[in-house]
Amino acid sequence: MKKLEDYVVSIKDFPEEGIIFRDVTSVLQDRDGLKLAIDSIMEELKDIDFDIVLGPESRGFIFGVPVAYNMNKAFVPARKKGKLPRETVEMEYDLEYGTAIVELHKDAIKPGEKVVIIDDLIATGGTIEAIVKLVEQLGGEVVRIAFLMELEGLEGRKKLEGYDVVSIIKYEGK
Question: Which of 26, 30, 47, 167 allows an S-S link to 150, with CB 3.0 to 4.6 Å?
Answer without folding.
Answer: 167
